[in-house]
Amino acid sequence: MELSHLIAFNVTLLAAILSPGPAMLYIIRTTLASGRVIGLFTAWGLGFMAATWTALAFMGLDAIFAVLPWTFILLKTVGALYLMWIAYQTWKHAREPMGQTPTPPARAFLGGMLVNLSNPKSILFAAAVIMVIFPQNMDFGDKVLIVGNHLLMEFIVSSAFVFAFSTKHISAGYLRAKPVLDRIAASVLGLLGLRLLLSR
Fold it and tell me: Alpha-carbon torsion 162, 24, 86, 104, what sign?
């Protein structure tokens, strides 16, 4: 493996992290609703699971999905239902004031993991990127480096995003428009969950 391979991987990864989707929306909503610390733990949970998908791609889990399609369908269904549950809870509590039910950091981390666990297509994406960018027959050390690099990239980029969205100006704006913004977020998350549930 050469440095150019890792740079190409990071550029692709950065585009994927910043692209709109349930993970990014979940980070934004959690940060604005619960503050910087909880937003960071949520982002770290999302990043940890994303890097885990890359590790599993190296282990050949995508091949298991090909041989046993029901495992992919099961993960996808559970994940879609989880996204739809988040959407329902967000819509239900849209008009409630913030700060009444603080979220423990461990729960925020787990919630982030579950959101990224909800999309088993991530492992197919990771497997495709690995096949396109990296040479075949890499040794174990190179694979560990790639997974560690993925984890670090996720942590740095998503943490920066949390800090940007936890400023007083943005938080105050969110609180003023909370009922509308929460229902928009709920609608998007619900539609993403439904799309994931119905997709093949």
Answer: negative
- 99 HSE (CA, 13 A, CB side): 3
Instruction: State the distance between the two ends of the chain, measured CA to CA, in whole angstroms.
Output: 34
Using left for φ > 0, alpha for ψ between -120 and 50, and beta otherwise, residue 35 falls in: left
**Number of Cβ atoms within 10 Å of the Cβ of 195:** 11
Q: Does the model's pTM come out above 0.85?
A: no
Instruction: For residues 83 and 71, give the distance between their C-alpha atoms in angstroms, rounded to a whole number.
Output: 18
Residue type, 181: L
Contacts of 88 (CB under 8 A, 6+ apart): 186, 190
- 88 token code pair: 């329902």
Which pLDDT tens digit goes with each residue over 93-137?
777 665 545 678 999 999 889 888 777 667 777 777 777 788 877
How long is the chain?
200
Rounded Cα distance between 164 and 162, Å, is 5
Domain boundaries of the chain, sorted by first residue: 3-198
Dihedral sign from CA coordinates of 131, 133, 139, 143: negative
The mean pLDDT of the chain is 81
22-39 pLDDT tens trace = 778 788 888 887 888 999
Give yes or no for a contact between 41 and 108, defined as CB atoms under 8 angstroms apart.
yes
Sign of the alpha-carbon torsion through 105, 24, 124, 71: positive
